[in-house]
Specification:
CATH architecture of the domain at 29-332: 7 Propeller
Largest sheet: 5 strands, antiparallel
CATH topology of the domain at 29-332: Methylamine Dehydrogenase, Chain H
Number of strands: 58
Number of helices: 4
Shape: elongated
């Protein structure tokens, strides 16, 4: 064979094969942030903390964030963060562990790559930290077990408040006197305290402060250490006598008195900022009057060390915000930061080839709600927040199969419809049986209506049966998935093409004709341990179940089932989905690891880079034929996308 003919043959055998990239965080950016810190020697570097023990780092002044490899604990809230100014690779994180052993001051020696919790302070849930300006190794921490001191940069800690002093059991704020390391201030849920001998004795300093004031923060003026500022649930206070006597600021409205942080402008003596639950307040006359600058619920605040007109605000629900003009205006800087619970990802208009993706978050208030993506889930924008939807607790989401702008949503007691891409919503009537008996909605699916091209049907799962309605709900009819007298408790509805599988509390039911007829599947496992169902559009392909026992497969329409062992060890499979645009390709998740199969689920291998570090994958979404990718839904850090890249190779 000549060289030319060999090359010609090779050219004929070239083919395009799918190559998949690694998981990429896709947002939606934002969510609650509980603490923020800035490196005083390099203000490009910042840290951002959140609930669920999340810590992010930015190296471009907050424009982009990446999640650090911090140990995860669902009870951990990062209350305080700090850079060690003697070594830029040393980071400190004060964590409230909710009475678990996870609480304490965690320490990283390698810029956040690895973390360790000193045994001396392990289990002491932290609310605040402070460093003494005269010695970079001296730290104080306020915890739920009193006040703790470290003389070696956080490696070792000693309790310096008396264990028998119940008034100082929970410490919510701490601060050093910048001129005297022996003088330390501590805020508690019952007024402030002070020591002048390094913690040997403590005295209550509450004259002039309302009784039972939760003290959230204490600031000591570095130029005049006798001048203190304190914020509390009862308002904000000033002392000119080192806490000997307090005077309440009269300029802040009573409605805004719950102030988590108070700070003076570093260079303007009469400018004071108060970060409250109802927004940022600023005074330009030393506290005589305050003006509200925004409506953010502020939990933490820092100034840029070189330009204090730049300030950052960590907020409840809305992430981190930056102001470049002293707080007058602000913008969100959350790209890469996410602390959100996403419940559903769905597609609308997939059958038309113009599909658009939607997802919904909960517990996000006005900063969350329904988001949309027009690029297969790589980027998300807010379509409607809780006010726009009229509901902050949407548990179910479904897209119109033909129209990318029509979307349905439901919670246990309500059903909604949007015809403009999720921007506005209208309430739809529920079946009378639900309205009269108080039965909860448990599943929602929108599918083509049999015999009516272009029209749709709503399938509504409830605790007492499956109901079918038209595009706007009414009229509703009970679907006879079973011949039993009592309608079953519906747990989920899964569909592909004309095929539907309904999971109830006692059995699985299959329809091959979009819901006109049904038959039970012969599953010997309890449906309570079935976590996900992969329904193929082609009846000749196997039905796959993700269960607590592993992956279960049926190649004869649910009459016989077998446990799949090819490439899989025993253990829970939490999610399984077919890739609709690549017949025979299937994805599953087992113990957080992504697996792939290209023979209809008969054999499996782990996907390179298929594990998302320090989190789990709750569900998968394959995006329909037009999306060409995979989306992972996590419990608390939004969604991740996995795109395939076409690569030319040899057969």
């Amino acid at each position: 064979m000549t060289r030319e003919s060999s090359l010609s043959l090779a050219a004929v055998c070239l083919l395009t094969v799918p190559v998949w990239a690694q998981w990429t965080p896709a947002g939606p950016w934002g969510g609650s942030a509980t603490s923020v810190a800035i490196d005083q020697t390099n203000p490009q570097r910042m840290l951002l903390g959140a609930r669920n023990s999340l810590i992010y780092m930015s190296e471009d002044a907050g424009e982009n964030w990446r999640r650090l490899n911090f140990p995860r604990h669902f009870l951990g809230t990062v209350r305080a963060l700090a850079f060690d100014q003697t070594n830029p690779q040393i980071l400190l994180a004060g964590v409230n562990g909710e009475q678990s052993g996870f609480g304490g001051v965690w320490r990283s020696m390698d810029g956040g790559g690895t973390w360790a919790l000193p045994e001396s302070i392990a289990g002491a849930s932290v609310e605040a930290m402070s460093q003494w300006a005269g010695d970079q190794k001296l730290w104080v921490a306020g915890t739920h077990q009193g006040v703790w001191l470290s003389h070696d940069g956080g490696s070792n800690w000693t309790r310096i408040s008396q264990p028998w002093n119940h008034e100082m059991r929970v410490i919510t704020a701490v601060a050093f006197d910048p001129d005297n390391r022996e003088v330390i201030y501590a805020g508690t849920p019952h007024l402030p305290w002070k020591t002048t001998d390094g913690g040997k004795t403590w005295n209550s300093i509450h004259e002039g402060m309302l009784d039972d004031s939760d003290v959230f923060s204490i600031f000591v003026d570095p130029e005049r250490p006798q001048r203190l500022l304190a914020s509390a649930c009862s308002g904000i206070y000033r002392s000119e006598s080192g806490g000997g006597k307090w005077a309440k600021f009269a300029g802040i409205p009573a409605s805004h008195r719950r102030t988590h942080v108070i700070r003076p402008h570093p260079r303007k003596a009469n400018v004071i900022y108060a970060g409250t639950t109802l927004g940022l307040m600023r005074s330009t006359d030393g506290g005589g009057t305050f003006r509200q600058l925004n409506r953010l619920h502020i939990l933490s605040m820092v100034f840029h060390p070189a330009d204090p007109e730049i300030l950052y605000m960590a907020t409840e629900e809305a992430g981190l915000w930056r102001s470049d003009d002293g707080g007058v205006t602000a913008r969100a800087v959350n790209r890469g930061f996410v602390n959100r619970k996403v419940l559903n990802v769905v597609q609308a208009g997939g059958a038309s080839g113009r599909g658009r993706l939607y997802l919904n978050t909960i517990q996000d208030g006005e900063a969350g709600g329904v988001f949309t993506s027009s690029d297969g889930g790589a980027h998300w924008t807010l379509a409607a927040n809780a006010s726009g939807v009229g509901d902050n607790h949407l548990h179910h989401l479904a897209g119109h199969p033909n129209d990318p702008g029509i979307l349905y949503a439901a919670n246990q007691r309500s059903l909604y419809r949007s015809t403009d891409g999720g921007k506005s919503w209208k309430s739809l009537p529920l079946p009378m049986q639900i309205q009269s008996s108080g039965l909860a909605v448990s599943a929602l699916s929108v599918l083509p209506r049999p015999g009516a091209p272009g029209d749709v049907q709503i399938l509504l799962g409830t605790l007492n049966g499956l109901y079918r309605g038209g595009a706007t709900g009414s009229p509703w009819t009970l679907v006879g998935v079973t011949k039993a007298d009592k309608a079953p408790r519906v747990l989920s509805v899964t569909a592909a093409g004309t095929r539907i599988v309904v999971r109830t509390s006692s059995a699985l039911y299959l329809s091959d004709d979009t819901g006109l007829s049904w038959r039970p599947l012969s599953l010997l496992l309890p449906t309570s341990i079935v976590y996900d169902i992969a329904v193929p559009a082609d009846p000749s392909d196997p039905i796959l179940l993700a269960t607590a026992k592993g992956l279960v497969s049926s190649s004869d329409q649910g009459r016989k089932w077998s446990l799949v062992t090819g490439g899989l060890d025993d253990g829970t499979v939490s999610a399984v989905q077919y890739q609709p645009n690549r017949r025979g390709s299937v994805w599953l998740v087992r113990f957080g690891q992504l697996y792939e199969s290209h023979d209809f689920g008969r054999s499996w291998r782990t996907h390179p880079g298929g594990e998302i570090v320090e989190t789990s994958i709750r569900a998968l979404f394959t995006g329909g034929a037009g999306a060409g990718g995979l989306i992972a839904i996590t419990p608390d850090i939004g969604v991740f996308s996995l795109k395939h890249l076409e690569q030319t190779g040899l057969r």
